[in-house]
Design goal:
alpha/beta, Jelly Rolls, Immunoglobulin-like, TIM Barrel, 33 strands, 17% helix, binds alpha-D-glucopyranuronic acid
């Protein structure tokens, strides 16, 4: 057991060289490094390896200049083109639409040193990032959807500095996700880059939420980074809460107190201003307090059974169809979900940007958040497990203070096998050890028996909520065949149909039997909704999907053109007929369920 743990530790360190605990950014002041970055496309990775394919100590990260007119330097960031950061390169440059490989990014910036500590923070980079400051390697990170940072206090200079990042979005069998996925492999520095300044002793992270099984006991902790342990104060001014705690030798201060707070809910998403102070460092955040649990086939929000009227959403911007890069784009997507009548969103298939979760928190939309353990992962590879585990812990770490997040999902549509179920079981153990307050779920595999859909996937025994994707009327059967489709499940747990639906080219009209017409998609929704009404243990659904999105798997000319057309809304924001079919179902309140 010990050597397995040691292996895991070595892999974790190897996986994210010099990885440091991520700073809870919250509303911290920061120097934003977003904007135009110089870039160099490097498909042969000639800027990293020499011709023997060994790491070149004088690679592009040195940003060499010609010392005199006879010098040979065959690259120049300062005369290269520019990309926007945050942003994917695929939708910024036509000749990069299908590009998968290395792109080098460079940003110069001025800095005035002070007695503060400085951290270089990345919201996300897809997929492999190698980061250099002033020609010196800070470290690297794998994984396209979670934040990371490096302390640069002793490396950032007074005056001119430059940061260079080697970004490689090549898909690999031993990555999470693996080589096959039905979303666009957007490469780039896809979320904000910040230089965060903090005092010598500062609040590195914190957690504050209602104690599991309670409705008026709050518990939490504050993790300090830095010497001279000082008293930590946690305040909720509106609730007249002010508590102090002493950090232990590791800088960890625990708090717990009773308070009759107004609970967060989808109908009234109450959040409190929380203030955490230690010495000169003060961090504020808006936190909601609620309980979420399962009881038999029910999901209980603050002790009351709730039906999750949801929709699946990819982190794809309306109108541009690239990665979401601005909070306004999140608000558009979530307003569309609200217009549908949703109280729940499945942020598929990877952790979305932090704004998406914070705005869902503000709007009263409950969230299913998930890591991209998707389809045919390399289940028996310890490095792959360590990668999945790190992405899971990083997702939970970033969003653990968001009341809206009620479920963590650890897998989507993974073929059943002994290694797969063991891999996923170990992920659920990590999730529960990291956060014992939220529900665990995943999209499991169903099969057909005597005309029924049977859910007895062994992975379900480790979950609180059973999820399953089911494409009756699209990947099998006619739309009409779905209305009477029955379901059986071997678990006495809540079921969420985490995907159903079908494709339609917006504006294409015909009969309900003609594929790709809006009428066909409408018939798929009408009949699947009849099916839903007959599932007594159903407690929610997140149909696939809010908006059309790019997918390299969908080349059908004049219909798909590399788009997945299952959106209820086109990429230009035009609602298809099935949008109104789902909206009508959600407006029946409470949603009809035949016992
Ligand atoms: C799968 C998968 C989605 C995919 C969808 C589809 O269920 O989970 O990621 O986009 O089906 O085929 O459109």
């Amino acid at each position: 057991m010990l050597n397995k743990l040691l292996t895991l530790l070595m892999i974790l360190v190897g996986l994210n060289v010099y990885a440091q605990p991520t700073i809870a950014v919250a509303d911290r002041d920061a120097i934003l490094l977003d904007g135009k970055w110089r870039y160099i496309v490097d498909p042969m990775e000639n800027g990293y390896y020499n011709y023997r394919y060994q790491v070149n100590p004088n690679g592009f990260f040195k940003d060499q200049k010609m010392a005199n007119e006879s010098d040979l330097v065959e690259y120049n960031f300062d005369t290269s083109s520019q990309l926007n950061v945050p942003g994917d390169w695929n939708t910024q440059e036509d000749d990069l639409f299908f590009y998968e490989g290395t792109v080098w990014y460079k940003k110069s910036f001025l800095y005035s040193k002070s007695d503060k500590r400085a951290f270089l923070y990345f919201g996300a980079v897809n997929y492999d990032a190698k980061v250099y400051l002033n020609g010196e390697k800070l470290g690297e990170h794998q994984g396209g959807f979670t934040p990371f940072n490096f302390e640069v206090t002793d490396k950032v200079k007074d005056g001119e500095n430059f940061v260079i990042v080697k970004v490689d979005n090549k898909r690999k069998l031993e990555q999470i996700p693996t080589v096959n996925s039905d979303w666009y492999n957007f490469g780039g520095i896809t979320r904000s880059v910040k230089l965060i300044e903090v005092p010598k002793t500062f609040v590195q992270d914190y957690s504050l939420q209602i104690k599991k099984g309670s409705l008026n006991e709050i518990e939490g902790w504050v993790q300090l980074d830095g010497k001279s342990p000082k008293t930590v104060k946690v305040e909720i001014p509106e609730a007249k809460v002010s508590v102090t705690a002493q950090p232990d030798a590791n800088g960890l201060a625990k708090v717990s107190f009773k308070s009759k707070l107004k609970l967060w809910s989808d109908k009234d998403p109450k959040r409190y201003e929380v203030k955490i102070s230690v010495g000169e460092d003060v961090v504020t955040d808006k936190i909601g307090f609620r309980s979420i649990e399962v009881k038999g086939q029910d999901i209980l929000l603050n002790g009351e059974s709730v039906f999750l009227k949801g929709i699946s959403i990819h982190e794809v911007a309306p109108f541009t169809a690239g990665r979401v890069v601005a909070p306004e784009q999140c608000r558009t997507l979530l307003n569309w979900a609200k217009e549908l009548g949703c109280n729940f969103v499945r942020l598929a298939h990877y952790p979305h940007n932090e704004d998406m979760v914070r705005i869902a928190d503000e709007m009263g939309l409950m969230v299913w958040s998930e890591i991209p353990v998707y389809w045919t992962i390399d289940w028996e590879n310890d490095k792959v497990f360590a990668n999945a585990q790190k992405q899971l812990v990083d997702m939970i770490t970033r969003d653990k203070n968001r009341a809206a997040v009620i479920m963590w999902s650890v897998a989507n549509e993974t073929p059943i096998s002994e290694p797969r179920t063991d891999f996923l079981r170990r992920l659920t153990e990590t999730a529960r050890a990291t956060d014992n307050t939220r529900l665990l779920t995943g999209a499991l595999e169903a099969h057909s028996i005597d005309g029924y859909r049977m859910l007895d996937d062994p992975f379900g025994q480790y979950l609180d909520v059973i999820g399953v994707n089911n494409y009756c009327g699209w990947y099998g059967g006619t739309p009409e065949s779905c209305a009477d489709l029955g379901w059986k499940m071997t678990y006495n747990k809540p079921l969420v149909i985490s995907e159903f639906g079908g494709g339609a080219l917006q504006g294409m009209h015909g009969t309900a039997t003609e594929r790709w017409t809006e009428e066909y998609q409408e018939a798929v929704y009408e009949n699947n909704i009849e099916m839903l009404k007959n599932i007594p243990f159903l407690r929610g659904t997140t149909p696939w999907i809010l908006m059309d999105f790019f997918s390299a798997r969908r080349p059908l000319p004049d219909i798909q053109d590399y788009w997945n057309r299952k959106g209820l809304i086109s990429d230009q924001g035009i609602r298809k007929k099935a949008f109104f079919t789902l909206q009508e179902y959600y407006q029946e309140s409470p949603v009809q369920l035949k016992k």
